[in-house]
Design goal:
Blueprint: H1 6-31, H2 45-60, E1 74-75, E2 83-93, E3 96-106, H3 113-118, H4 120-123, E4 124-132, E5 143-148, E6 164-165, H5 175-179
Antiparallel strand pairs: 1-2, 2-3, 3-4, 4-5, 5-6
Length: 196
C-alpha cells in the first residue's frame, strides 16, 4: 500500500475540516428536532393539499366563498381582525366527518360591526379555520389549522411558509401557542363543547 504524501494529507485534513462543522451542526439540529431530516410542523405539500379539501368542503356547506353564511359580527383583536364573525359546524373531508370552526377576519378603512353586517365582502381580509382531524396531532387535540385569503388561497407567514397544518407548533407564538390558553382544554375560546 502506498503511503500518502504530505500534500495529500494536507488536502484531506482541509476537506475534513470543511465538512466537519456542517455535519456536526446537522447532527445537533436533527437531534433537537430542528434539522432538515425532520419535517417542518406546517406548510408541507400534504398540508396544503388537505387545506384545499377543507376549503372545498366549506364552500359546499356555505361556510366560505360566495354565498356563504355570515353570523353576527363582534369586536375582534389581533392577530385575527378588528371585527370577526365565527361559525362552527361539522363538515366532511376525505369521507370523514369533523368539527370545524370558521372565523371570518375583517378589517380596513371604516370597518365596524355595522359596516361588516351591511357589506361583509368589502371588509373580509382572511378566513381562519380549525378542523378536528382525528389522529392528526394528539398533542394539540387533533386540530388542523389554516389561514385562507378571502378567495380560498392559503396565506403565508413572513418566512413564506404556508399557514396550514400544525401552524407554529412548538413555537412561543402562533395559532397553537395562543389557543393552548383557551379554557376547557379544547383549544377553543368561544365555548367548551368540543373538549374531550
Amino acid at each position: 500500500m502506498k503511503q500518502p504524501t504530505k500534500n495529500h494529507l494536507a488536502i484531506k485534513t482541509a476537506f475534513q475540516r470543511k465538512l466537519f462543522k456542517p455535519i456536526m451542526l446537522t447532527a445537533v439540529l436533527t437531534t433537537l428536532g430542528m434539522g432538515s431530516l425532520s419535517a417542518a410542523p406546517f406548510g408541507s405539500d400534504e398540508d396544503i393539499g388537505f387545506a384545499g379539501k377543507i376549503w372545498n368542503s366549506l364552500e359546499q356547506a356555505k361556510l366560505a366563498g360566495s354565498g356563504r353564511i355570515v353570523s353576527t359580527p363582534y369586536q375582534g383583536s389581533h392577530p385575527h381582525g378588528a371585527i370577526l364573525d365565527t361559525m362552527d359546524s361539522q363538515i366532511m373531508v376525505e369521507g370523514k366527518k369533523g368539527s370545524v370552526i370558521v372565523k371570518n377576519n375583517y378589517g380596513g378603512e371604516g370597518v365596524s360591526k355595522k359596516a361588516v353586517a351591511d357589506n361583509p365582502e368589502k371588509y373580509l381580509q382572511a378566513v381562519t379555520v380549525m378542523f378536528k382531524r382525528p389522529g392528526y396531532d394528539a398533542d394539540n387535540k387533533d386540530w388542523f389549522w389554516v389561514k385562507y385569503a378571502p378567495d380560498g388561497s392559503i396565506m403565508k407567514n413572513p418566512k413564506n411558509m404556508a399557514l396550514a397544518g400544525r401552524v407554529a407548533k412548538g413555537m412561543p407564538q402562533g395559532c397553537i401557542a395562543c389557543h393552548q390558553a383557551a379554557p376547557g382544554g379544547d383549544m377553543v375560546f368561544n365555548h367548551d363543547k368540543l373538549s374531550n
